[in-house]
């Protein structure tokens, strides 16, 4: 998979990995833009656009349309290396959107690479029902404005994925959670959102969750794993593991006054 193919795949992810769920989520189709919207869930993780291929002639009109579509609902706009125009982020900031933490697109194609794990942690696949029962705990671990409602909406919308909880061995104590997303019609997987309990960070739990997902990805026939890693947290860990960078990504938020822990 070359770099352009990775860019196109990442820009298409909301459509590729999420179903429309009546009353919960729907695809948003605007010329030169892709997105997912939920009139029910007031959270930017359930209301997002990206993959912009716009011109100097229609970009401001499209920004106006996006704001009109979402109204007062908090939403996010992902900006990647191939999105146009090149100054899109400047325009979004000028419209009052708040720039969040930057991330980097990364890929791993060698699943045999050795990874240091925590032998006292078990990463166990869990049902979607189990995830929804613990949605508040998972949202608190993740932070960045994620809510339990947004987690529940994503559980309902994913086409094919597997959630995991990281437990202390021999206990029911959840010290982390993670998600493996199978990208339809490809042999690629997305290492989705992950979080480690603040009191247990720095103990290779994140690496242990990566290891389990790669093991299961290989078993499914996948030959590459993609991740959008936050630069100041997971990206350095993924670099150490052996993931290769292929592009920087920024995310901008609108209507954020009602959100907590956005950064």
Largest sheet: 13 strands, mixed
- Give the CATH H-level superfamily of the largest domain: Gcn5-related N-acetyltransferase (GNAT)
Shape: globular
* Count of alpha/pi helices: 9
Descriptive overview:
This protein is α+β, with helices and mostly antiparallel strands. The protein has two domains: 3-103 and 250-254, no CATH class; 108-247, Aminopeptidase. 30% of the residues lie in helices and 28% in strands. The chain has nine helices and 13 strands. Strands 1, 2, 3, 4, 5, 6, 7, 8, 9, 10, 11, 12 and 13 form a 13-stranded mixed sheet that branches. Strand 3, helix 3 and strand 4 (75-79) form a beta-alpha-beta unit. The protein is globular.
Short descriptors:
single chain, 263 residues, alpha+beta, Aminopeptidase, 13-stranded mixed beta sheet
Describe the secondary-structure layout:
Layout: H1 3-11, H2 13-17, E1 26-30, E2 33-37, E3 48-50, H3 59-70, E4 75-79, H4 88-94, E5 98-99, E6 103-108, E7 121-126, H5 128-133, H6 135-142, H7 148-157, E8 161-168, E9 174-182, E10 188-191, E11 195-196, H8 205-219, E12 224-230, H9 234-241, E13 244-254
Parallel strand pairs: 3-4, 10-12
Antiparallel strand pairs: 1-2, 2-3, 4-13, 5-13, 6-12, 6-13, 7-8, 8-9, 9-10, 9-11
Helix pairs in contact: 6-7
Describe, in short, the structure shown.
30% of the residues lie in helices and 28% in strands. The chain contains nine helices and 13 strands.
